Amino acid sequence: MDVLYFAWVRERIGHPKDKVETTAKTVRDLVNELSAKEERYAVAFSDLSALRVAVDQELTHFDAPLAGVREVAFFPPMTGG
Amino acid sequence: MEIRVQQAGFDLGEETNRFANRQEGMGAVVTFTGIVRDLSTGNLDVMEIEHYPGMTEKALGKIASDAMERWNLGDILIIHRHGRLQPTDHIMMVATSAPHRVDAFQAAEFLMDFLKSRAPFWKKEVIGQKAAWVAAKDEDEESLSRW
């Protein structure tokens, strides 16, 4: 599964993309798995209310299931326009 | 519907004319343009706009389709830039056409409200050696509830 990071999430983690092998059932499980991996992930994910998540390029929530998912992206609230 | 996500600048007059000239039977064209302004201190050097290629196009397409369903519209144009922009540069534009002005105005407002907080763009202000991500505003999120 590809895990993508944008804006300050990308900067805190230090790169734009990870390829992960995971058995995580939900986005929240994936967040916990990544946070346990390294401190910089734990820091980036420390306040989930400041983050948004997209699964296969659709905005969703942290309890969304990951079965069959190809791409998960984490980013701050969007500031378009 | 025409949706363009691009690094290059665009000519507002040309885009507006091209859009307006291809509308048949439409009595109204509304356009909105977002311009890089110096948000905080008066010495903004650069506005960097990051986006999520793939999702951006899908999200804008969804927002535009929702507007087409909701109002009696002829057509929609959305152009949004990314990359490094300077103060006074045009960031984005939307244009709507409709038989009557109310639909064109309302749809343009709807597009802008959703584009602000549902399209995956992130703005960063660069002032000298310092750079800061622009925080999303609560009122931008709240403005979605009126639709």
UniProtKB/TrEMBL annotation, chain A:
Segments passing through the bilayer: none
Source taxon at top rank: Bacteria
InterPro entries (UniProt xref): Beta-grasp_dom_sf, Mopterin_synth/thiamin_S_b, ThiS/MoaD-like
UniProt xrefs under SUPFAM superfamilies: MoaD/ThiS
Name the UniProt record assigns to this protein: Molybdopterin synthase sulfur carrier subunit
TrEMBL record, chain B:
Alphabetically ordered keywords of this record: Molybdenum cofactor biosynthesis, Transferase
Matches recorded under Gene3D superfamilies: Molybdopterin biosynthesis MoaE subunit
Family annotation (PANTHER family): MOLYBDOPTERIN SYNTHASE RELATED
Tagged with keyword Nucleus: no
Subunit note: Heterotetramer of 2 MoaD subunits and 2 MoaE subunits. Also stable as homodimer. The enzyme changes between these two forms during catalysis.
Record-listed E.C. numbers: 2.8.1.12
Pfam families: MoaE
Pathway: Cofactor biosynthesis; molybdopterin biosynthesis
Keyword Transferase part of the UniProt annotation: yes
SUPFAM superfamilies, sorted: Molybdopterin synthase subunit MoaE
Protein name per UniProt: Molybdopterin synthase catalytic subunit
GO biological process: one example: Mo-molybdopterin cofactor biosynthetic process
Residue runs in coiled coils: none
Reactions catalysed: 2 [molybdopterin-synthase sulfur-carrier protein]-C-terminal-Gly-aminoethanethioate + cyclic pyranopterin phosphate + H2O = molybdopterin + 2 [molybdopterin-synthase sulfur-carrier protein]-C-terminal Gly-Gly + 2 H(+)
UniProt record similarity statement: Belongs to the MoaE family.
Stored InterPro entries: MoaE_sf, Mopterin_biosynth_MoaE
Role noted for this protein: Converts molybdopterin precursor Z into molybdopterin. This requires the incorporation of two sulfur atoms into precursor Z to generate a dithiolene group. The sulfur is provided by MoaD.
